[in-house]
Design goal:
By secondary structure, the chain is of the alpha+beta class. It is built from two helices and six strands. It has a six-stranded antiparallel β-sheet with strand order 2-3-4-5-1-6, with helices on one face. Strand 2 and strand 3 form a beta hairpin.
Amino acid sequence: MGREYRLSCFSLDTEAIITFLKQHFAISEANNSLWSVVLTGNTTDTQDTWPAVFVAFEYDGIYFCDNLTSSDASSIILRHLLDFLLQTNVKIQLEEL
């Protein structure tokens, strides 16, 4: 159980976002639509089986799940993701699910 959000925006380039995440974080595909994201070099996860964040790409935005394993890591990942999205979007809507 974690905190779930939807980040909605007008312009969403999934491949560019995945490239950005790979450049800044350690990511891996958890299944065909869900990606796990952790800070690069993070070896101090409190729960080995859960990454800091899961993301999934939807037609109108990004599903973002903070797994509550590391509030610092999930905050950093969310901030960088928002900054990246704001480069191509004037407005982003953040909704808690």
